[in-house]
Design a protein that fits this description.
Enzyme class: hydrolase
CATH superfamily: L-arginine/glycine Amidinotransferase, Chain A
Organism: uncultured marine group II/III euryarchaeote AD1000_114_C07
Largest sheet: 3 strands, mixed
Keywords: Hydrolase
Order of helices and strands: EHEEEHEEEHEHEEEEEHEHE
CATH architecture: 5-stranded Propeller
Number of strands: 15
Protein name: Putative NG-dimethylarginine dimethylaminohydrolase
Strand order of the largest sheet: 2-1-15
Number of domains: 1
Shape: globular
Pfam families: DDAH_eukar
Strand content: 25-35%
Number of helices: 6
């Protein structure tokens, strides 16, 4: 049975406010470390406005003082056709973030708990048509991949697994699906042959604009990208998308991207 998830029925979004201790957030990949909490809060507010302008009703959870990375809610759960898989996050400092996410999502969805030996960051899962693309990375182990694959298969979806280079944080850092049939990915991270067997139109973002490969698309043809990446904006426009951008400079400092800040459900 094919999965019945459909972007047209995505009506709800969940975000969490910036932690008052955001300057202590992890920055081990492309981030330089956040330095300005107030500016980060303002950037987050603009991000939420962009989601609302595209028709989403956004629930905002309070920030957690003891969890500097708590705004990156994508990592805490994976939504699979009416269920939320609550993740065992891969970095020790982030464990404990998922509890309040599970509580909030349980009002809308069935929740599924992972076994203790399975580690998974939701940022390593990208929804693409009737597939879930899954990255095995420094934050997601084989047990985590196996578990989320089984959940997806049980709910009618196919899966496709990528081995992510150690220099890359998550699959979603360098790959996203702004519309059915289309993937956006960054040159220099995944190789073209890794997509063999996956029927997709792939838009390759130049390596120097890798950060912009993380996009959020909507059913009306609009796509949000990070501000400051003109080559990516032009590529997406050439493929028929209506492109808007938000300033992600302060969020990027904590290794954060657009999709990291939200969970979508219907």
């Amino acid at each position: 049975m094919m999965g019945d998830w459909d972007r047209r029925y995505r009506s709800g979004g969940l975000v969490r406010q910036i932690s008052p201790n955001f300057t202590k957030a992890l920055a081990n990949y492309f981030g330089t470390g956040p330095t300005d909490v107030e500016a980060s809060i303002e950037a987050h507010n603009k991000y939420v406005e962009a989601l609302e302008e595209n028709g989403l009703e956004v629930t905002i959870l309070p920030g957690l003082e003891n969890h500097p990375d708590c705004c990156f809610v994508e990592d805490a759960a994976v939504i699979v056709n009416g269920a939320a898989v609550i993740c065992n996050l891969g970095h020790p400092s982030r464990r404990g973030e998922a509890e309040s996410i599970a509580e909030a999502l349980s009002q809308h969805l069935e929740t599924i708990v992972m076994p203790k030996n399975a580690k998974l960051d939701g940022g390593d899962v990208v929804f693409y048509d009737d597939y879930f693309l899954i990255g095995r990375s420094t934050r997601t182990n084989t047990e985590g991949v196996d578990f989320i694959e089984n959940v997806c298969h049980d709910r009618g979806f196919k899966t496709f697994v990528f081995d992510i280079p150690q220099s890359t944080l998550h699959l979603s850092t360098i790959c996203s699906s702004p519309s059915p049939g289309v993937l956006v990915t960054a040159e220099g991270h995944l190789q073209p042959e890794q997509f063999d067997g996956l029927d997709a139109e792939i838009i390759w973002v130049p390596n120097e604009e890798s950060y912009a490969a993380n996009t959020i698309g909507f059913e009306n043809g609009c796509v949000i990208i990070s501000d400051g990446y003109p080559k990516t904006a032009e590529l997406l426009s050439q493929h028929g998308f209506s492109v808007t951008s938000v300033d992600m400079e302060h969020i990027r400092c904590a290794d954060g991207s657009l999709t990291c800040l939200r969970l979508f459900f219907k």
